[in-house]
Amino acid sequence: MSVSTIEYGQLPALLLRAPDGAEATITLYGAHLVSWKPAAATGAPAQERMFMSRLSALDGSRAIRGGVPVIFPQFAERGEGTRHGFARTSTWRVLDSGEQDGAAFAVLGLNQGDLSPQASSAWAYAFELALRVAVHGAELAMALEVRNIGTHPFPFAAALHTYHLVEDVEAVRIAGLQAETLAITDKLDQVFEGIAGAIHFDNGADKLLLQQSGFTDAVVWNPGAADAAALADMDDEEYRNFVCIEPALLGPATLEPGGVWRGEYRISPAV
Ligand SMILES: O=P(O)(O)OC[C@H]1O[C@@H](O)[C@H](O)[C@@H](O)[C@@H]1O
């Protein structure tokens, strides 16, 4: 079976397992990818690629701290709505899952009818989201589709807020965001607009290629020691073990009635 239902913490989740051994786990709460393990060489243990805070809530009471939160329809506090939007704290439905071209995949959906009454009245637009996740070999592919199925245009922002697991954040080097290679020596929360090509991410152990389309921007975030200490759902030292590199459409963009926006994202080894 390439896709099975499991519990992650106290949350129902899908475990995707490709024939080559690549794995991913996605909770229905937030359509949140909480674990990704690329296929390992024969006999070698599969290695986790996603950071997950030891103190993260895993019961649906608040957003999960780690993995890949889906950010929609608002980025951070750039708007009047819920910080980073409601998608990460809503429960999605499974639309499809299985195996295709050697990859295990799942598609999860969210629409107006799935929202809490509070979220639905605060953002009263008829929308449909579909998140497709596929794993195969050393590659993770994600695609987020936003549809306007109503009669009014709506504004939105979207991001896949990826928490990459690293051994030491100071060893990280990121190229392709700006003219110089980016290193993280302290707290960093920076927006890079108009990402033109692939991002080269050296996590200190491996070199990865991050490719995005539809998502025009990227955000890099690490809270550093002081901000991490102030986060209730992150251990004080955990900031050393991740960097968020987030493909994003900060916009806000406008989607007309009948319109579809699609953002794609792929993580693969840089060869
Ligand atoms: O604590 P949250 O809501 O998950 O946000 C985490 C971070 O997410 C990043 O995307 C933002 O750029 C930061 O400003 C923010 O602190």
Give an overview in words.
The protein has 271 residues and is mainly beta. The chain has a single domain (3-269), classed as Beta-galactosidase, Chain A, domain 5, CATH 2.70.98.10. The chain has two helices and 19 strands. The two termini are 31 Å apart. 6-O-phosphono-beta-D-glucopyranose binds next to β17.
Query: Architecture, CATH level 2?
Result: Distorted Sandwich
Bound molecules: 6-O-phosphono-beta-D-glucopyranose
Number of helices: 2
Give the number of domains: 1
Calculate the terminal CA-CA distance, rounded to whole Å.
Answer: 31 Å
Largest sheet: 9 strands, antiparallel
Q: Which word captures the global form?
A: globular
Give the strand order, joined by hyphens, for the main sheet: 6-7-8-9-19-16-15-12-13
CATH topology: the name is Beta-galactosidase, Chain A, domain 5
Number of strands: 19
CA-atom Rg in angstroms: 18 Å
**Proportion of residues in helical segments:** under 10%
Family: Belongs to the glucose-6-phosphate 1-epimerase family.
Protein name: Putative glucose-6-phosphate 1-epimerase
EC number: 5.1.3.15
InterPro entries: Aldose_1/G6P_1-epimerase (IPR008183), G6P_1-epimerase (IPR025532), Gal_mutarotase_sf_dom (IPR011013), GH-type_carb-bd (IPR014718)
